[in-house]
Amino acid sequence: MVINKKYHKSLLLSASLVLGLALIPACTPMKATHGNLLEADRTSQIIAGTSTRDDVFRTLGSPTTVSPFDNNVWYYMGQKTEKRGIFDKEVVDETIVVVKFDDNNIVTAFDTMNDARLDVPIKGDKTPTYGNEVTIMQQMLGNLGKFNPPE
Predict the structure, then answer these.
(1) Is residue 148 part of a domain?
(2) Of 40, 110, 97, 100, whose CA–CA distance to 69 is shortest?
(3) How many domains does the chain have?
(4) pTM higher than 0.70 for the full model?
(5) What DSSP state is assigned to residue 95?
(6) C-alpha distances in angstroms, 141 versus 85, 137, 144, 147, 148?
(7) Segments forming the whole domain that contains residue 94
(8) Which of 1, 48, 54, 136 has the lowest tally of Cβ within 10 angstroms?
C-alpha cells in the first residue's frame, strides 16, 4: 500500500496542530481561592471601640475559626493559590484578619496580617515509645509455635 506524500504531510501537520492546541491549556495557571479573603470596603466598616460582635458578623460573616483559648478572638483567613502544570501550588496572596472583643462584645482590636506565614521551628526529636525493643528477626520468628491447640 503506497501512501501519497501530500496526504502523509497533511496528516502529520494536522496531528501536530491538534497536539499543539491540546497542550495550550496545560500552560494556563489553575487559580484557587481558599478561606475568606475580605475586601477592603468591608474591613473598613469595622472600627475598634464602636463596632460590636453582631456588626462584625453581619459585615464580615462567620469567622474562619475562633481562638481555642479565648472565644473573644476571631480569625478570618484567606489564601489565593496558583498552580502551573505539574509544579506545586504557589501562594499568591494570603491574609489573616484578627478581631478581638472585650467582655461587652465591643471590638478592641482589628488587625490585618498580609503574608502571614510564620516561621515555626520544627524540632527534630523523636517521641519515645515505651515497650519492648524487638529486632526484625524476632518479629519474623516471634509467632512460630504460638498456634492454638486443636480442641
Answers:
(1) no
(2) 100
(3) 1
(4) no
(5) E
(6) 49, 6, 6, 13, 16
(7) 28-115
(8) 1
